[in-house]
Write a structure and sequence with these properties.
Strand content: 5-15%
Strand order of the largest sheet: 1-2-3-4-6
Structural class: alpha+beta
Distance between the termini: 63 Å
Oligomer: single chain
Shape: globular
Number of helices: 13
Order of helices and strands: EHHHEEEEEHHHHEHHEEEHHHH
Helix content: 25-40%
Largest sheet: 5 strands, antiparallel
Radius of gyration: 23 Å
Length: 374
């Protein structure tokens, strides 16, 4: 279960179903749902009932997955919701907007508040003459979306489907998409780290204008605090199936680590974050790398790319070897906890190595220098 992605709404929806200032919010949702469910579908149903009963003071997008199904859930106004089962051969790019578009109330692959269709029909909320496009009905479609949300969906879809021509400001970019290529963790990480590379909108571009660089919100951005890719593998025993790929700091300058989920502790470098910079913290080390990397992106770009490739490669190798022997250990959970500490060491040590390389590259470029040709 992910929690959460803040999404948008509109005044028509809020007029018929106002927010509840004392209702549930993103800080509540995981704790009151995840411990009580056994499948993705159960998660959708439980969260839906809780929102119907208690309401919410914000709208959110949430994903639920298990080894068989993946569901995307949009909360609607104060007390309503809708969810769609994502087909096994499809992907979704979901920025901070209402994302579900075409919705079939009679499908086995959709769930929603029991009175949702009635709410739409009785209050004349549907702007379309045919069908039910929930983004049209409950979403925003504002100018801000064309600057803040839609371009991120556009770039993700452009990466996975370069053959399709679309506009970054299009309000009707599709929700469920398909590509001929099987999507890897590295593909997902690239999209979540992206800043519109190879387009006119790259903030680090060298041939575009300053206006173009600032036109759209990148996906990878300075206020990324963490990146997670939640993976449930179908080709291994359940004890080692759950993988929590995790990285801290601005995504453009970090590397994801495949931590096993069936553990009883978190590596020290990853749980000791603190409110202020401290040594020994992967969180703050990642921010330091991001700060350096942003200072002179092109100077450090190759080193950062090598760091990411090597770190993920080393961690993948440890994961492959662990998968072979984990179930033979007397205490699998304890063993996986030890492996996670080893994975954290790889990330932390490689991050420090990258920091040293950055310092060596940057020091000769300091402005505080003087020469008399001696």
């Amino acid at each position: 279960m992910t929690a959460t992605e803040t999404i948008t709404t509109n005044s028509r929806a809020l007029g018929v179903d106002p927010m509840n200032p004392d209702g549930l919010g993103e800080e509540d949702i995981t704790a009151i749902v995840l411990p009580y469910i056994h499948s993705a579908r159960e998660g959708v149903q439980r969260l839906g009932k809780l929102l119907e009963q208690y309401g919410t003071y914000e709208t959110n997008g949430i994903c639920f997955s298990d080894k068989d199904e993946c569901w995307y859930f949009d909360s609607i106004a104060g007390h309503h919701w809708a969810a769609v089962r994502i087909p096994d051969d499809a992907y979704v790019i979901a920025p901070n907007r209402f994302n579900i578009d075409h919705f079939d109330f009679d499908s086995d692959d959709t769930l929603c508040a029991p009175d949702l269709k009635q709410l739409v029909d009785e209050n004349h909320l549907n702007p379309d003459p045919e069908g039910y496009n929930l983004r049209h009905i409950f979403g925003s479609s504002t100018v801000k979306d064309t600057r803040y949300n839609n371009p991120r969906a556009w770039y993700g879809q452009k990466y996975f489907n370069p053959e399709i021509e679309q506009s970054p400001i299009d309000q009707d970019l599709p929700f469920i998409c398909r590509t001929e290529k099987k999507i890897s963790v590295e593909d997902i990480k690239f999209v979540l780290s992206s800043h519109y590379e190879n387009t006119d909108f790259d903030p680090y571009g060298t041939t575009n204008t300053e206006g173009q660089k600032k036109l759209y919100r990148p996906i990878g951005i300075n206020r990324n605090q963490e990146l997670h890719i939640l993976q449930i593998r179908n080709d291994v025993p359940k004890e080692i199936a759950g993988i929590h790929w995790l990285a801290y700091g601005p995504n453009t300058f970090n590397a994801v680590v495949p931590f096993y989920a069936n553990v009883d502790d978190t590596p020290a470098q990853y749980k000791n974050t603190g409110a202020h910079y401290t040594q020994g913290s992967q969180y703050w080390l990642s921010y330091l790398l991001g700060t350096f990397g942003d200072f002179d992106f092109h100077l450090f770009e190759d080193f950062e790319n090598i760091f990411e490739q090597n770190t993920v490669g080393e961690c993948r190798n440890i994961q492959l070897e662990t998968d072979k022997v984990a179930l033979d250990k007397p205490d699998t959970t304890a063993y996986l906890t030890e492996v996670n500490a080893k994975l954290a060491d790889v990330s932390f040590n490689n991050s420090n190595k990258l920091l040293g390389q950055m310092i060596e590259l940057a020091a000769p470029r300091m402005k505080l220098q003087f020469t008399l040709h001696d």
